[in-house]
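ERR on first pass: missing label on line 2. Operator R.T. fixed the label and resubmitted. Corrected input:
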Amino acid sequence: QQPVQSPQAVILREGEDAVINCSSSKALYSVHWYRQKHGEAPVFLMILLKGGEQKGHDKISASFNEKKQQSSLYLTASQLSYSGTYFCGTEGNAGNMLTFGGGTRLMVKP
Amino acid sequence: DAGVIQSPRHEVTEMGQEVTLRCKPISGHNSLFWYRQTMMRGLELLIYFNNNVPIDDSGMPEDRFSAKMPNASFSTLKIQPSEPRDSAVYFCASRLGQVQGYTFGSGTRLTVV
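pass 2 clean. output:
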């Protein structure tokens, strides 16, 4: 079953922060986050594994609450280059394959 | 490293024709995935292979779709006969291990007229 992402779209000014949420109805082994720019392929950002953890690089970080089967992606002090569509992908205990959410379209304006 | 290589980048074909999409995964990656992306349905998993063996093809829409991975460096997705509703961007992705992210190819934009 497809994870649910919220919000569906967000518009920011440069320097503002954003949070994107991903929620699943089933137990999860891992959560992935990807960013896709228009006309391009999705690009891997980070993976969070069961055990509950928080990760980050640069000004993008994420958390994973396995009890709630939820993950959040945090973008701080956003830059124009952060614009794109963000997808979470969830992996259940059974397998190796990702089920992607519907995506969150992020637009950062000057 | 050249990344995941897909061909062709664009394909326009007439309804009823056979279409073959090709993918070369990153050397050493042992899992390969085929996804389809449309505005209406988002990113859908079609099939995935582990060590060249098909593991889950439950996402393949119907018998018109078939996929093969004859060796670790090559996979094909075939649609025969093609229909207009097959129009989409088809992505191939590969992965080294279960705690690694996917690397996607540039995709094949298929248009069936």
